[in-house]
Amino acid sequence: MVNIFLTFSLTENIFHNYFEKQVKDQVSSTLSGLDFGISILLDKGDLNSIQRMVEKIGAYSFIKIIRVYDLHNKIISSNDKGEINKKIKIEIVDKVIRENRLQNINSNLKEKKLEVAVPIKGTAYSKANKNDIMGVVFVQANTSSFEGILLKYQDLFIKKYIVSGTLLLLGILLLLVYKIFLPITKLSNAVNEVSDGDYKHEIIHNSHEEFSYLIQNFNSMIKRINARDMELKQVKSKLEEQNGVLEQKVDERTKELVQTQEVTIKSLAVLAETRDNETGMHVYRTKNYVRILAEHLKDHPRFSSYLNETNIELIVNSAQLHDIGKVGIPDRILRKKGKLTKDEFEEMKKHVIYGRDSILKAEKTMGTNSFLRFAKEIAYSHHEKWDGSGYPEGLAGEKIPICARLMAMADVYDALMSKRHYKEAFTHEEAVKIITAGDGRTMPEHFDPCVLESFKELNHKFKEIFLRFPERNS
After folding, report:
1. Per the database record, which ranges form the HD-GYP domain (predicted)?
2. How far apart, in whole angstroms, are the C-alpha atoms of residue 368 and residue 241?
């Protein structure tokens, strides 16, 4: 079989080489004497006669392109008049000019390529020296005109060998099926079984088969894979058991941390209460006000990305620390009966700064986290007002953190509802009217409009929370 292919390839090369020589000879014969005639016409400057000569030769079916170049690669004559006076650089033309070659041929009929470049030299009758190049004739042959002859001889060759080659091929194929393809099919089927998870599959064979050694190795490999699979299953079972224990420990530890955080928050909140015993259950009520506002607003386009479930829990828990800064206010001001002086009120306003600073110190020790970030924002900004009239920075609108806007509403409502040594408690209806209509000190423009609308819808729930956590001394 190999001999047939080699013979076919060799004969095909002989045909191509023969016809390539025939094409070269025919093109060279056509160009014979052309350079002499063009040399004389160039010497006279008779470009019209050169053009007629070129067009006549270009009319042959086997001529695709014929051009006459000057020494600057400019076309002075062509069977395509549109090319005249253009510069179309051809490598073999350039070589003839640079190297003063007699002829330069670039041919490969398999690639349908045949190009010839012939120098135009001076003659005894011309002004130029006979060794000087005056220009170059370039021809590109139309090889398709020769393909018919080549195909005819190739067809005869193929028919001669096709029958004997086919018979031999059939015999070889039958041998291959028995010796190679059947064992390969066994291996292929076995691989499919193993890939489907059957690690106990074994190929049945006899020692005289081709690929017997390979099949034996395959069976040995499958046994090792099966053993390793059993080991991995045992390891997986142990890991799952250990993971279950670890997950349980992580859950227990997480619960302990959450409980510790809650205890810490409550302890700090109680600490603030002990300094200002009139606030009582204020921190418990306000965190619940904050929760219902946050839950109501979480689907609003302005708040949906901020008020997710995780953030709501963090905001609600950190809301208990909104007045932690009052720990830093002197008792003479914090517990004063009667109206505060201007200076005393300015000192009282500093509780938001003291609260922020105490949480900043905690961050330096514990590292920044979401809980402390919300606690810091609430402690520092819950007295800011939407219209910018609040303190400590006079922030307005969206510059006020959302958590602080929620806390502001919760803080004002609870302050209005609670009895203080400097005022009596308002009824729920009075508190709602003051928040939504204003009384001079508290105005609706102090609140985020969306938060205010939520309060209007939820005010009955605010009342329920207030009644659920009454003051201890009430």
Report:
1. 257-471
2. 35
